Amino acid sequence: MAMPRPATIPDFLTALVRDHGTRPMILLGERRIDYAEAEAASAELARGLLASGMTKGTRVGVMFPNGPDWVVAWLAASRVGAVVVPINTFYTPRELGYVLRHADVHTLLTASHILGQDRLERLESFVPSLIEAKGPELFLPELPCLRRVVVWGDRGGRAWAEDVAVLTARAPSVEAELLVAVEAEISPADAALVIYSSGSTADPKGAIHGHGPLVHHVVNLNGFRDVTSDDRIYSPMPFFWVGGLVFALLSSMERGAFLICEERFEPGATLALLERERATIVSGWPHYSKATLEHPSFAERDLSSIRSGNLYDVLPEAVRPKDPELRSNSLGMTETLGPHTIDRMDIDLPERLRGSFGHAVPGVEHRIVDPERGAVLPAGERGEICVRGYSLMQGLHKVLPEDTFDADGFYHTGDAGYFDADGVLFFEARLGDLIKTAGANVSPREVEVELEALDEVSSAYVVGLADPTRGQNVAAALVLRPDAGFDEAACRQRLRASLSAYKLPRHVFVCEKAELPFTDSGKIDKRRLATLLEERTRDA
């Protein structure tokens, strides 16, 4: 696949308005805007930012639910050459304060309330001195780079927060020609985003990505997807994470499609939304699929417009895969702008590729290395997955390049797996998650797949627990389907047909999902799970 020409976010927006101007772009609640409206609104806001002293390289935090406001704020900041920092709306006050300070955010653009919670109060709880501060310019030792907070919605009389209407009222003082000139000075190599990871085991890290790679990558990835300008795409993936930003928002925009958002997932309301908006592609986390299927109104809904997506239970039977494990996965991370391996996800794979993660994205290359010796390993040998290429981040904010990349420019992902002779990736686990028991390596995911194939098991989470003689023992936490019983001995007997003896769980715990530790991105926290299960083992 030929790489697209160098581009910037302003270039990207110009092309979208030219090709899709009056097509609907994005919806949240009762508000929807088209591509031309997004351009006009972001231009007005961008001129207001320029009039308020914003300049190229300024760090701008963006904190909204998915929807038109997020898109307009992001576009406006990008058009003046600012470096956008998407802010996780799940953050606690401490996490919010950490990212604002670590990212050197100068201006925060934010909704006043998200999911019914006062976000300005949350900021005040981290910086109590804000309560007495006079705005709009701020000087706070706790957030030394922060100068302005611009608010969409009710400010509650706070003098330190500036209403967005005041900002946009300054737009006429900046000629449209100046915005055009500013946009012309943005290059594909300029930083566009600092995206923070979820930080489940440590404070989050900020990956810096440029304008050119961002636009290149979404064009590249869309070559593997069947998305058209006629599609109406439902995705709850937050834009502050790279998956939602690249695989939902930018993917939809690049094709001129319509993106359907909601602030909160509730199965009944979501089903009504999908039916009303005639969604054609539906994506989300696996538990969304199950929850919608089990909702009492599911059978009454007309979902015949849906033709694709990974909420498999919602798909009409004619397009539902018979075996989702025979559809290609993709492997990605914040540091690589999402997927660095991918294949077509709407085509059934041969059995030998069950559970595989695709080929390298064109323009991206990999090495598998021995994590202890650093030696490059041949096809078929398991080791650490390393990556470099156009979509790899410029670096981690406030981290030296030599502490981020190896001498050849590869980033060591911390993921374990191997490529077969045809260049197809088989991902196994995070390196720290691999279980070493009696001298053998066990991939937790391999065991989880077999456990989840049991009729009574809804989900399975496998970790290694310390053992004085074997090194580690395989342990599993199981969440059962409603009203299902569980016979551990019968379970082990069935697993023997598909797993070697050393892979069989020596400890099995039946748990309620609510008692298991998950990160704010919905992933199981394996370290905390291991601690929890070790405590249960001692108490047994």
How would you describe what is shown here?
With 540 residues, the protein is an alpha/beta fold. It folds into 4 domains: 20-210, Rossmann fold (3-Layer(aba) Sandwich); 215-326, Rossmann fold, CATH 3.40.50; 331-432, Roll (Luciferase, domain 3); 434-539, ANL, C-terminal domain (GMP Synthetase, Chain A, domain 3, 2-Layer Sandwich), CATH 3.30.300. It has 14 helices and 28 strands. The chain has a 6-stranded mixed sheet. Strands 4-3-5-8-9 form a 5-stranded parallel sheet. α2 (35-51) crosses α3 (68-79), α4 crosses α5 and α8 crosses α9. The protein is globular and about 75 Å long. The termini are far apart.
User: What strand order characterises the main sheet?
Assistant: 2-1-13-12-14-15
Share of helix among residues?
25-40%
Q: What's the N-to-C terminus distance?
A: 57 Å
Largest sheet: 6 strands, mixed
Rough outline? globular
> Within the CATH hierarchy, at the fold level, what is the topology of the largest domain?
Rossmann fold
Structural class: alpha/beta
For the record, what CATH class of the largest domain applies? Answer: Alpha Beta
Supply the CATH architecture of the largest domain. Answer: 3-Layer(aba) Sandwich
Number of strands: 28
Rg (CA only): 24 Å
Mean pLDDT: 92
Low-confidence segments:
none
How many domain modules?
A: 4
Number of helices: 14
Fraction of residues in β-strands: 15-25%
